Amino acid sequence: MDGPGVSGCERYSDDAVVHCVSERQARTVLAAIAVRMEQVGLRLHPDKTRIVYCQDDRRRASYEHTEFTFLGFTFRQRGMRAKSGRQFSSFNPAISKDALKKISAEVRSWRLYNRTGQDLIDVARDINPVVRGWMNYYGAFYRSEMYPLLARINAYLVRWIRKKYKRLRAKRKAFRCWRGIVERFPRMFAHWEWVPSVPSVW
Q1: Are 137 and 73 in contact (CB under 8 A)?
Q2: How many CA atoms lie within 13 A of 82 on its CB side?
Q3: Nearest of 109, 128, 131, 108 to residue 120 by alpha carbon
Q4: Spacing of C-alpha 94 from chain mean position
Q5: Residues 6 or more apart from 61 whose CB is under 8 A from it?
Q6: Cα angle 30, 23, 43; round to 5
Q7: pTM of this prediction?
Q8: At what angle do helices 120-138 and 97-110 cross, to 10 degrees?
Q9: CB 82 within 8 A of CB 71
């Protein structure tokens, strides 16, 4: 609930988000939408339809629902930092847990560490379009929420190095090789723009 009057509406397929100025207005708009839906032989989904209070520094009241997911993003109160360095909270989107779970499952299905018949550049050519698409879409807001996933891709690639080259099976040697590759070819993988390093635990 935000903005003067009904400030806007975002719609995708059969899902929609309506912005209102108050809970009273939100309930009035919701009732009107329900009536209109019935007039055309449709009805609102009983589990997905709800009024959400957009908590932030200015709106500090309590409410049953304070977040929602739309188009793969979860909107909720999140910490922010102003250019001046001041910290504050705002109601903003970031990639949802369900979207992260789905992407993680796809990354696992690639079994990158088993593609030892390919060169690293071939692996990059295969996955870069997909990973870049995720970055462009889900990274539009709070890209840091994607960093653990991208770091996991790096961990899989280090496993690839260890399996492909016998002389690099020791973690320390594989990690040293990895750093050399990143330094020489920093743009080989799309996600290295954000996360070029390997997580400390892998």
Answers
A1: no
A2: 6
A3: 128
A4: 5
A5: 53, 55
A6: 15
A7: 0.81
A8: 170
A9: no
DSSP string of 107-144, one letter each residue: HHHH-GGG-TTS-HHHHHHHHHHHHHHHHHHHTTS-GG
Q: Which of 178, 201, 173 is nearest to 188 (CA)?
A: 178
With a CB cutoff of 8 Å and minimum separation 6, the contacts of 135 are: 143, 146, 190, 191, 193, 194
Torsion, Cα 162 168 174 176, to 10 degrees, reads -160
- Nearest Cα neighbor of 200 from 171, 167, 177, 160 is 171
Which pLDDT tens digit goes with each residue over 144-201?
999 999 999 999 999 999 999 999 999 999 999 999 999 999 999 999 999 998 765 4
